[in-house]
Write a structure and sequence with these properties.
The structure is a single chain. The chain is an all-beta fold. The chain has one domain: Neuraminidase, CATH 2.120.10.30. The protein is 2% helix and 42% strand. The chain contains one helix and 24 strands. The strands form six sheets. The protein has a four-stranded antiparallel beta sheet, with no helix packed on it. A four-stranded antiparallel beta sheet has the order 4-5-6-7, with no helix packed on it. The longest helix has 5 residues.
Amino acid sequence: MSPHAAGLIRLRPQTYRLAAIIALPLALTACDAEQSLAPDAQESAPPSVAADVTPGFATTPQRFVYAIYRNGGYDISRMDATTGQNVVSLTNTQVSESEPAWSFDNKRVAFTSYRTVAGQTRRDIYITNADGTNGHWARSQACSCDLGHPSWSPDGSRMVVAMSLNGVDYIAYLILGTGQLGAFSTGFGGLPGTQPSYTKSGLIVYVGPTHKTVFRMSGTATNIKALYTAATPLAQPAVSPDGSKLAFVQAVNEFGNTDIFLRNLTTGTTTKIAGSPTSDAFPTWSPDGSRIAFSSARSGVSQIYTMTPTGGSVTKISKSGKPEGGPAWSH
C-alpha cells in the first residue's frame, strides 16, 4: 500500500477537500489498543533528519512548524511565525508527514508519519527535538492500528492522539515514559471521536463521532461537555491560550469548501473569521492569543497566513512558493 493512500489529514497542493479535513481513514486491521508488536527486522526506518538543521537550536516563542510539499510528499519544517524566515527542515523524506504539534516547553515536536512493519504500513507518531535532532518513534514498538493528530499534555509526560480501530475512531492516550497506549473509556467502551488536543489548562478538546460537535473533557475523560454543535461538519478545534475562545473549521458547501469560525465561549457568539472561494483550515493560536495562523489556497496554492482573532490584518507568511499547510504555533 502506498504511504500516501491513507493520509490522516492529507494536504493537497490546490485545495483541502472536506473528507480529507474531517475524517480519519479506516483502520487497515482491527487492533487491541494495548497490543504491541515485537520488534521486526522489516520495520521501516524512521524519517531522516534534514541536512540543514542546526544542532543546539535554542527554542524561542513565536515560531511555528508546518508541512511543506517536496520530494513527492510533505515534510515538516520550522520557521519564524512573523516573517516566514529562518526556515529549518525537521524531516526530509519521500513519504508524507503531517499534523505537527509542539510540546508545551517548545523543545520537541511530534507529528504523524508512516511506519511499515512486516509489510503493513500504519500511521504512527514520531518525535524530534525542535532542531530536528534525536528523531524517534513515540513508541518503540508499533501497534497494528493507525495513530494520528498528536497533542502534548502540559507537563510533557503523555499525549492525546486519534486512534483508528476496525473502522472506528477513538480518543486515546499515549504515556511517553512507558509507551502505554489505550483508548479513553466511556464506561461502555472506547470514547469515539477524533482530532483531540490538550488545552493549556490540561483539558482535552475533540470532535465527536458525528463530526458536528466539539467536546471538552478533563484529562481523565470525565466531565465531558459539548462546547459547540454545528449544522454542518466541523473540524480542527483550537482553544485560545486563555481558554475563552474556540476556533474551528466548518464546511460551508457540498463541494468541500471550509471556512474558519470563532466561538466566544463566554458570550456564546459565533463569527466567521476566515473565508474564501477555496478552503481555509488548520487554525492555530499564537502564544499570547493575539493572532491565528491558518492554511488557505486563496492564492492558487495552499499557503500559510496569520490574522487577528476578528479576522483582520491577514498576512501571508509562506515564502517558498511550494504548497504549505497545517501550521502549529509554539506555546
